[in-house]
Amino acid sequence: MVKAGPATQLSLYGTEDSLYFWIARLALHERGLSYDIIEMDPFDPPLPDNYLALHPFGRIPTLVHDDFALYEASAILRYVDQVFDGPSLVPADARAAARMSQLMSLLDDYAVNPMIAKVVSERLFSPLEGEEPNEEAIAEGLRGADRALAAVEAIVSEGLILNQRSVTLADLYLGPFIGYFVMPPEGVVMLRKFPALSRWYDWFAARPSAMAANPGPPTNEDK
């Protein structure tokens, strides 16, 4: 496989407060890559035609590597792993690799709505828009988050991945989910219920790549 050389040009389109933009940035930092951030907010239309040519659905993130454009965070992570030098981020063991893929799908299907769209969005972003948080939505989100995190706790406890011995795409995908979820106080309290996951996150959040990619709590300047 041909690895990209140092003279390549990398640009990442997105906005700092996006979960999936955070995930994509984390992969680039894990590989120690330099890249340009091009601000692109899908909720601030109209989007320029040149961006819609890169991403026909007008979402984020999109990675442009020289003349190659790629969207969808999971695809970006796999591309960065395969193209740029560094230890493989996909386990060689078939069961561990399958568990990694399962975790990434689990987060997209069962965690993003309760944890991010309900708890994080209502508690952190609604006040920035001058709106009161919807407490019923937060309570519903916490119930869903509890179920999702229980499933993640079981995966961490199993030890095939998220084992603090090596970093895989599962670590890079999960990190921003938990990072955002513990910004509201309810997330901090809930995470304590899951000791294996809590230990993993303490380890992961202290890694240089995780600290470099973390955007911090959203502010009005991000809006």
Written description of the protein model:
- With 223 residues, this protein is an alpha+beta fold.
- The chain folds into two domains: 10-83, Glutaredoxin (3-Layer(aba) Sandwich); 94-209, Glutathione S-transferase Yfyf (Class Pi), Chain A, domain 2.
- It has helices at 19-30, 49-54, 73-83, 94-128, 135-158, 169-181, 185-191, 195-205, 208-213; strands at residues 10-14, 36-39, 62-65, 68-71.
- It has a four-stranded mixed β-sheet, with helices on one face.
- Helix 1 (19-30) packs across helix 6 (169-181).
- It starts with 9 loop residues before the first strand and ends in a 10-residue tail after the last helix.
- The mean pLDDT is 95.
List the helices and strands and how they pair.
Layout: E1 10-14, H1 19-30, E2 36-39, H2 49-54, E3 62-65, E4 68-71, H3 73-83, H4 94-128, H5 135-158, H6 169-181, H7 185-191, H8 195-205, H9 208-213
Parallel strand pairs: 1-2
Antiparallel strand pairs: 1-3, 3-4
Helix pairs in contact: 1-3, 1-6, 4-5, 4-6, 5-8
Q: What structural category do the secondary elements indicate? A: alpha+beta
Let me know the largest β-sheet: 4 strands, mixed
Number of domains: 2
Share in β-strands: 5-15%
In CATH terms, what is the architecture of the largest domain?
A: Up-down Bundle
Q: For this structure, what is the CATH class of the largest domain?
A: Mainly Alpha
Q: Would you give the CATH topology of the largest domain?
A: Glutathione S-transferase Yfyf (Class Pi), Chain A, domain 2
Query: On the 0-100 scale, what is the average pLDDT?
Result: 95
Whole-Å distance between the termini? 41 Å
- Secondary-structure element pattern, one letter each: EHEHEEHHHHHHH
- The stretches of 5 or more residues where confidence is low (pLDDT under 50) are none
Q: What is the 3D form?
A: globular
